[in-house]
Amino acid sequence: MVNRKELDPETSPAARFGQHLRQLRDERGWTQDELGARVGCTGTHISAVETGRRPPTSRFAASADRAFGAGDRFQRMVSALQNTALLEGFPEYVRQEVRAAEVRLFELGIVPGLLQTPEYAAAIATGAVRRGAITEQQAEERLTLLAERQGSLVRTPPPFIHAVLDESCVRRVVGGPKVMADQMAKLVAFAELPSTVLQIATYDLGERRAFDLPVTLLTLPDRSQIAYSESAQQGQLERDLRFVQPLMTAYHQLQAEAASQAVSLAMIEQLRKGAP
């Protein structure tokens, strides 16, 4: 079939749903329009769900189960998709992160996960549970994955990590004074490693700050590059060099504008000692 998009079910839960939907549709010899007629939508909608451009709803899953006589298979897949604590696109990003030769990241508001102490990470997860944003089980899922990610960076040779933190990351108190003091100490220790650079994008950078959302740029062993960015509800993984390269350029500009590592560490040391 011309222009038929290949599906990778390992990319995300939505991709697994779409791949399974296409597989059952192909087995029955139905077109997307024919399946759409059976579940009460258009063939265009079927295409969007199959390729992951539109997430499946519980209602869509129930209709698909009826159309295929699949019991509650699709409904269970949607339930798993909706109940995961991980943003869309993030599982695939993590699979690439553990391979990366270089990691460049920018974060707003909180210390990035790779640099968090266990206590700081637990405070963030506990806050999300108290707000009702995630369940306790999902919080455990996040913390377990974070520990695995941090552990994967202790390898030979280690990846080069360049972290630029918005000033809000180090001024926002998370978990109380003791947790923050330990977190500041960890940032200092991180910056002292031979394969790392840490900078603060200070508030006075203003409109010159290159990014308004968190972004991570990976350089893989074959020198290919991947960009991952997040909003509150969605993560986006980008491989196309046409989109990744401008982000890399913007990151280099951010590095040039941010405070030097020496100035950044002096600020962190002041905060660790309780100075404003």
Q: What this model shows, in words?
A:
There is one protein chain. The chain is elongated and about 65 Å long. By secondary structure, it is an alpha/beta fold. Strands 3-2-1-4-5-6 form a six-stranded mixed beta sheet, with helices on both faces. About 50% of the residues lie in helices and about 10% in strands. It folds into two domains: about 15-85, lambda repressor-like DNA-binding domains (434 Repressor (Amino-terminal Domain)); about 90-270, 2-Layer Sandwich (Endonuclease, Chain A), CATH 3.30.870.
Features:
Endonuclease, Chain A; 6 strands; 434 Repressor (Amino-terminal Domain); single chain; alpha/beta; 276 residues
Quick summary:
This protein is an alpha/beta fold and 276 residues long.
CATH topology name of the largest domain:
Endonuclease, Chain A
Judging by the overall fold, what is the CATH architecture of the largest domain? Answer: 2-Layer Sandwich
Strand segment count = 6
The averaged pLDDT comes out at: 87
Secondary structure topology:
Layout lengths: L12 H16 L3 H8 L3 H8 L7 H11 L4 H11 L6 H8 L4 E6 L10 H14 L4 H17 L7 E7 H5 L5 H15 L4 E6 L13 E5 L5 E6 L4 E4 L2 H17 L3 H12 L4
Parallel strand pairs: 1-2, 2-3
Antiparallel strand pairs: 1-4, 4-5, 5-6
Helix pairs in contact: 1-5, 2-3, 4-5, 7-8, 10-12
